[in-house]
Amino acid sequence: MSIRRGLDGLMKLFPCPAWCFQCRRFITEELQSPCQSLCLDCVGILPGIEQTYCLACCKQHPFEHCKTVWSDEIGHLRSLFWYQEPLNNWVTQLKYSRNFNAGRVLSELVRLWSLENESYFLKYDFLLTVPLHWRRFLKRGFNQTQYLLSAQNKLKPNTNLIQKIRHTPHQAGKSSREREINLHQSFAVTKKFKGERILLFDDVCTTGQTLKEISRNLMEAGASKIDALVLCKTRGERL
Fold first, then answer.
1. Is 158 left (phi over 0), alpha (psi -120 to 50) or beta?
2. Closest Cα to residue 86, out of 50, 135, 37?
3. Residues 40 and 178 sit within 8 Å (Cβ to Cβ)
4. Confidence class for position 57, pLDDT limits 50, 70, 90
5. What are phi and psi of 170, to 5 degrees?
6. Of residues 53, 165, 38, the one with CA closest to residue 102
């Protein structure tokens, strides 16, 4: 028996103890949750979004009944969570402090959501992630949107069909119009589509300008349907 196989056997007999990433309590059998890094109590306080909560205008009614048109290219926007504590802290820790412990929690939440919504991914031909400009990629060392999808296997993301061709300042603190100007002509699509259906994924949606700018390019490249999926949506922002 190899040393590796022996260690694997011991791990199965005596699994490593787990502490909750949020409250730091030891996760006893009674506190176990579907997410291995969070206890049952902390999973229960995550700011999930009810499906009856409109993501176009942030009012309490079904999205399909909303008359707000925020994008001519995107048919539907769906978010897993609101961008508030503790999710906003974990996203910030991952992106700007390379805290991959926080990242693993977030990617696990995406994986669990994909398991519960397997049929959702079957509607699309491509899963695309929002790209980083090469200068920001070198500084950060990774693309957080690609990392968040790394644990799910329902639809393999394509990471080279969209490029960030112009380096732009950070969007934080800018108005919707300023964000639109900042992102204009900063993306390029590397493939001609023939009516394929595309799901575009990002970590956080604030005003939706990034998603709209990329979707405009995808539609011009021949995509027939574009929907957006994000980890978090900010509250109170009208798209």
1. beta
2. 37
3. no
4. low
5. -60, 150
6. 38
Both tokens assigned to 83: 């961008």
- If DSSP codes are grouped into helix, strand and coil, which group holds residue 217? helix
pTM of the model: 0.85
Q: What is the pLDDT of residues 5-44, one digit of tens each?
A: 544 443 444 445 589 999 999 999 999 999 999 999 999 9
Cβ proximity of 199 and 229 under 8 Å: yes
Write out the residue limits of the CATH 3.40.50 domain(s) in the chain: 48-233
Query: Strands of 197-205's sheet, edge to edge?
Result: 74-82, 225-233, 197-205, 126-129, 157-158
Distances in Å between the Cα of 206 and the Cα atoms of 30, 38, 166 are 37, 26, 21
Cα–Cα distance measured from residue 173 to residue 230, given in angstroms and rounded to the nearest whole number: 20
Question: Cβ(23)–Cβ(15) under 8 Å?
Answer: no
User: How many residues are recorded in the chain?
Assistant: 239
Q: Is domain 48-233 given the CATH code 3.40.1350 in the classification?
A: no
Q: Which residues contact 234 (CB under 8 A, 6 or more apart)?
A: 82, 83, 204, 205, 206
